[in-house]
Prior knowledge:
The structure holds three protein chains of three kinds.
Chain A: H1 16-42, E1 45-47, E2 53-55, H2 59-65, H3 68-100, H4 107-115, H5 122-133, H6 139-147, H7 160-185, H8 189-197, H9 202-213, H10 215-230, H11 234-239, H12 253-262, H13 267-295
Antiparallel strand pairs in A: 1-2
Chain B: H1 14-41, H2 46-51, H3 63-109, H4 115-125, H5 130-143, H6 151-157, H7 161-174, H8 177-185, H9 190-201, H10 203-219, H11 222-227, H12 236-246, H13 257-291
Helix pairs in contact in B: 1-13, 3-6, 3-7, 3-10, 3-13, 4-7, 7-10, 7-13, 8-9, 10-13, 12-13
Chain C: H1 9-20, H2 23-32, E1 42-47, H3 54-63, E2 67-72, H4 78-90, E3 97-101, H5 105-110, H6 131-137, E4 147-159, H7 160-165, H8 174-187, H9 201-210, E5 216-220, E6 223-226, H10 231-245, H11 257-264, E7 270-274, H12 277-282, E8 292-296, E9 309-317, H13 324-336, H14 338-347, H15 355-358, H16 361-364, H17 377-385, H18 397-414, H19 418-435, E10 439-441
Parallel strand pairs in C: 1-2, 1-3, 6-10
Antiparallel strand pairs in C: 3-9, 4-7, 4-8, 4-9, 5-6
Helix pairs in contact in C: 18-19
Amino acid sequence: MPSPHRQRRSRLSGLVPYLFLAPFFVLFMTMLVLPMFYAFYLSLYQERMVGGTIFVGIRNYRTALGDPAFWEGVRNVAMFGIIQVPIMLGLALVLALILDSTLIKARSFFRTAFYLPYAVPTVIAALVWGYLYGPNFGPFTQLAEMIGVARPRFLSESWILWSIANIVTWTFVGYNMVILFAALQAVPRDLEEAASLDGAGPFQFAWHVKLPLIMPALYLCAIFSIIGTFQLFNEPMILRPMASSVIGRNFTPNLYAYSLTFTSAQINLAAAVSFITATIVGIVSFVFIRFAARGSGPTT
Amino acid sequence: MTIGMTRGRSGHFVKEKTIAYAVLGLFLIYTLLPLYYLVISSTKTNTQLFSTFGLWFADDLNLVRNIEALFERQNGVFGRWLANSALYSVAGGVGAAAVATAAGYALSKFNFRGRNLTFAIILGTVMVPNTALVIPLFLLFANFGLTDTIWAIILPSTVFPLGVYLMKIYIDQAVPDELIDAARIDGASEVSIFFGIVVRLAMPGIVTVMLLAFTSTWNNYFLPLVMVTDPRLMPVTVGLAQWNELASAGSGGQALFSLVITGALIGVLPVVAMFLLLQRFWQGGLASGAVK
Amino acid sequence: MKIVDGLSILAAQRRSVLGLLGGGVVAAAAAAMPQSVAADQVEITMWSWVPNLQMQIDLFMERNPDIKVELVNAGQGGAQHMQFRNALRAGRGAPDVIQIPLEMQATFQLIGGLEDIGPLGASELQGDFVDWVWGQVSNEDGAVFGIPWDSGPMAIVYRGDLFDEAGITEIPTWEDFREAAAQFRETHPDKYITSATFSSGGWSTGLFWQAGSRPFEVIDQTTIRIGVNDDAAREVAQFWTELLEADLVDPQPAWNNDFYTSLDRGLISSWIIAGWGPVFMEGFTSESAGQWRAMPMPTWGEDNPAAGNWGGSSIAVVAGTPEAEAAARLAIFLGHDQEAATMFYERQFLFPVLNSILESDTFVNATMDFYGGQGFNHVFAEASNTIDRDFQFSPFQDFVYETLESELGGAAANGTSLVDALDRAQATLAAFAREQGFTVVD
């Protein structure tokens, strides 16, 4: 272990930070870094039902990159990220701004209520929404019949991505709202007094003064949402029996890696798919952060 | 940081108020609808689920009978699942918070070689899709005979890079350098500084991280799905999904929807209760991570 | 005392405590615990999803006091296969005895997961089981990889009242079925005669099987013939494509809340389903109880009375278990003992595969209260006799089902050609098999 230069205390005490870091470091290495290397190692081989395991170099990567099924999943999550993430964050932002404004009462009640879905496991959320989506007898269909409008087709090919987006939105709007709300609470109150003296209404104030101040929190939410999007798994997995014809094994990259591992026993290809997915997430996050850093300069 | 200070100026902004309440009201309906459906459905028998209007009660209430059936099925394995979820989540939550607090403290208050690199790496791994690691981790664990044990779920749940990040930010703010320096001059040991000052002052942040890790472990599906085979080691999420799947597989299959729904309701309650009880900590703690 | 893998934490702890104590203390402690392990008792674990199986397990332990059986419900379908694979891969956590779906026999045989119990007494039982089912658990070399447990001969379970109103009494051939479907739609414009549940690989396979399709043939350990799009399968696919195009059958996927409700309300008025179906349907039908009847599946021509099969399972001994003898005894008991087998069809409603039961009057004439005193067994028992023996599953059946489900299920839902979907499935499966090192022939 290297000892720090520039220190005020004894040589021995230089070890202290490392000791505090040690438990995390050990777990981090064994549970995160080691499996990553192991996945990389696996991705260079091919285990076959006939003929055993062979070294194939980068062939699994070539296979995955040339596999339209994989890219279809990537396209799905990309669509999801481009449309669902802004909608969810927009909603969260609007709610946070309202709850932070002086317009309404019972804010604590609303905040807690909106936050509740986050406490619901995504598996359970997907099960419940799945029941609600039932095309013939789901409550929405029952309602549509009552008022005489066309039945919603939540589980059809053209709707399914957005039906899943709805479940994710439902689960995470409140979570993001709480983060944004917390950031808003840190905005100095005297600004509001000043603005209101200038005759600005609460909407103008929220838009022109508060929003720019909480951009960092918004970026944080966006980054986590984008990462979450690429990991989409539980919701499509649970909805599959109800919409098996439209949610294929490759609906998302994660679902694909799972199916490759456990249905067709192609663990090596699955490792490559996981690696490529992680790389894409890394690139997208990096680009987003650069973009955000530029965007968060002097704004008006 | 708390709500308070409603500086209502009655008469002002009537239009805006109406819009604000309308938005909140609509969103409230949206938020509560599935939960409402869950509660309603848990009072129905399997056949009532199929024969009655989904958003209202059936003629008779069968919640108690459903709960009894739920806890009796497969020799009461559901109770076991609840206990497992609790064990994994508490162990994962406490473990993650402890480890993250120590690491966050090191990153926040010490200037050591490799600090920035360590911090950057931790931030970077927040971006690794967790499922990308579950499968290799499973294969790795399998080599050591660790699959199908409680450790296969608990150990990975204690690694929580986001928690380290949050704890660093929180300790940056909540623990003044001067306090630590003063304690050192007084001759306090590093251990007593950590437990006596840092942990005490950073408690809201620690609780936040614990809650986050607790929830993510309670809600986790993929990791335990892959790691454990024995139904007696499964958490609620995996167990319920398995029952749900029973309705869709060949001979001997059964449609257990009423049990799945009742189980879902009961599986949600502990986390909801925990959040309602501890929300003060939770929201306060998150703020620090977000403001930075 | 064998350390059984994959037991509960509590049990594991108990055992490790026992291990620490001396032998005498162990005996004392054991005596203190009810149902605990005697000195020379063998402990084995079994995975099965059959409900209330403990009844028969208790019966077995009563008759075999030297064996203690730990019963674990490790789920069913994909979940169970995955867990078994995981356990085999990990070399740890696998049971000694396991319920294996018939269609997964070939898969687990190939990866070496199943023990040949022919020499342990299974070979002698061949003649007692339905011929085609025996074919699924054994090979030409005389190896036996499991005792047949139940099967799923297919027939049509339909709403008698709705069919009567449409004037449909019998449907001898599939051409007649087309007419019946049209007739049904005319009488009940808001309902369908049945659902094209191609989203279920087992269901589609049953239909192809009936038509004489032979999608797979393992020629030797490394060579396989794949023909999921053979002529028989194409004929079936073409037929259903036409029914779907003409809007004569419902296209929605099966196995979910909504589908069951549709059946209960008569929106879908019949289900082409296996012998285990009627009892399964009891779980979610309320309004329609008492209205259900059964008839044989239509045939592909008068001279070809074959039926199809969907589902069914076997009891296998896991390869490498140190207690193979005890495990085989359990498997043979559960599958072959008259008393146990009778209980299975009477109480757990497994469709029997023992000839003695299939031919017994009590079975054939059994009625079900739920169905208004109707008896369906004779219909399914007849179907059971006509199932093609030479049908083979692939050694990667999980993947085959998933491929069929996504291709055929997708085509059915989108109204595109099922024949084209079969061709795509063929290409996918052949490529997969080559990738796995097989030599693929046509």
